[in-house]
Amino acid sequence: MKKVSFFKKLTQIVRLKCPECGEGNVFRKNKDSINFFPEMIETCEHCHHHYDREPGYFLGAMYASYGLAVFEGLSTFLLVYFFLPNISTFMTALIPAVVILLLSGMNYKMGRVIWMNLFPR
Ligand SMILES: [Zn+2]
């Protein structure tokens, strides 16, 4: 694994690129509107790095995904709480929950890419 700067690595994570080369996509671009769930590519199309290194490897990605969801929910809650003071308590709780649900697909993908970058081969 070659040494890259923190910001370059962060850009690769946000763009869902291969943790090894930073060029290949980790997920297929879904143009099919019927298939909602993200589909992961098994090996990098650029450097042939195999993403799934052992059975159960991506179970840990749930921790990264959970962390992202907590961050998004808390951020949304604080924004709603401070910038919409006349909104009901129910809506103050509902809006962060909806935001977390809407971003769940992105959290799933980002969690896996973060996990691969935290624990490379
Ligand atoms: Zn690669």
Question: Could you explain how this protein is built, in words?
Answer:
With 121 residues, this protein is an all-alpha fold. The chain has one domain. Helices cover 50% and strands 0% of the residues. The chain is built from 4 helices and no strands. The chain has helices at residues 6-14, 61-83, 89-102, 104-118. α2 (61-83) runs antiparallel to α3 and α2 packs across α4. It starts with 5 loop residues before the first helix and ends with a helix. The mean pLDDT is 91. The structure holds zinc ion. Zinc ion (ZN) is lined by residues 18, 20-21, 23-24, 44, 46-47, 49.
Write the layout of secondary structure elements.
Layout: H1 6-14, H2 61-83, H3 89-102, H4 104-118
The structure holds zinc ion.
Which terms would index this structure?
mainly alpha; about 50% helix; about 0% strand; binds zinc ion; elongated; about 120 residues
Short description:
By secondary structure, the chain is mostly helical.
State mean pLDDT (0 to 100 scale): 91
Give the helix level as a range of percent: 40-55%
Largest sheet: none
The first-to-last residue Cα distance is 9 Å
Bound molecules: zinc ion
Number of helices: 4
In what range is the share of β-strand residues?
A: under 5%
The backbone outline, from C-alpha atoms, is elongated
**Counted beta strands:** 0
Number of domains: 1
Structural Rg:
17 Å
Helix-strand string: HHHH
Uncertain stretches of 5 or more adjacent residues: none
Going by helix content, strand content and strand pairing, the class is: mainly alpha
